[in-house]
Design a protein that fits this description.
- The protein is an alpha/beta fold.
- The protein has one domain: Vaccinia Virus protein VP39 (Rossmann fold), CATH 3.40.50.
- The chain is built from eight helices and eleven strands.
- The chain has helices spanning 29-38, 43-47, 63-75, 90-95, 106-114, 133-136, 163-170, 186-194; strands at 2-6, 12-16, 21-22, 51-57, 80-87, 118-121, 124-130, 144-149, 173-181, 198-201, 212-215.
- It has an eight-stranded mixed beta sheet, with helices on both faces.
- Helix 1 (29-38) crosses helix 3 and helix 7 (163-170) crosses helix 8.
- The model has no long low-confidence stretch (mean pLDDT 94).
């Protein structure tokens, strides 16, 4: 179901044969996690305040969460960090155990997989919820500072880009929280706006169009 790819920044991703799409940009999987997700969500800024809750939709190989955790701990080693990841495909989660440690905290992501999708130690708590994100998001309690939205494309996975799904995300975000996603498709931005978000351009990173940052005011 998956084909392994080494991207130009020497990080590993996979091509999903069912969706016929890669899990990350082929220009650099690690770079994408940092530049399109952790930095646009201003993880470091939230971490300086002492605590942050992160919702990672379509957890995949865990790169986006890893980049966010690294960014938070780099500015505040005592920051309380909670990550909730949603993922439907156990196969990609099992691949995490075979990945090189491209991020400082990646061994902790591996421990999460080994420990039945839960990790808690000191100031870090990671929970993964397996299933269709359209349904599992309804199980989540509390509000988040940052949302990492990384499904396959709107063409291949339209159910995770609808206004209804964005409504569920919006209702679980704090005021002034941020959502980052790689897509700038018109339907994605229109649905985000209709759900109540303010929309801004994110970085391009080897693409014609920018990524998208959505802010809940």
């Amino acid at each position: 179901m998956m084909q392994r790819i080494i991207t130009p920044d020497n990080s590993v991703t996979f091509h999903n044969l069912h969706f016929d799409e890669a899990y990350h940009s082929k220009s650099g999987a690690k770079e994408e996690a940092v530049k399109k997700f952790a930095e646009p969500c201003q993880i470091a800024g939230f971490a300086k305040k002492g605590n942050i809750r992160i919702l990672d939709i379509c957890f995949g190989l865990g790169y986006n969460s890893a980049a966010a955790i690294d960014a938070a701990l780099a500015v505040n080693s005592h920051c309380k960090i909670e990550v909730v990841g949603l993922e439907i495909d156990e196969e990609i989660l099992y691949e995490i155990l075979n990945m090189p440690d491209s991020f400082a905290c990646y061994p902790l992501i591996k421990e999460t997989i080994k420990n039945n999708y839960n990790y808690t130690k000191d100031n870090l708590h990671i929970t993964l919820i397996l299933g269709d994100a359209v349904q599992t998001i309804k199980q989540i309690k509390g509000e988040f500072d940052a949302v990492l939205l990384d499904p396959f494309s709107p063409k291949k996975c339209p159910q995770l880009w609808t206004k209804e799904f964005f409504d569920d995300i919006y209702s679980r975000m704090k005021p002034n929280s941020r959502l980052a996603t790689y897509s700038c498709a018109r339907v994605v931005r229109d649905n985000l706006k209709n759900a109540g978000f303010q929309i801004f351009d994110g970085p391009k990173l080897w693409r014609r169009g920018p990524s998208t940052i959505a802010v809940k005011k």
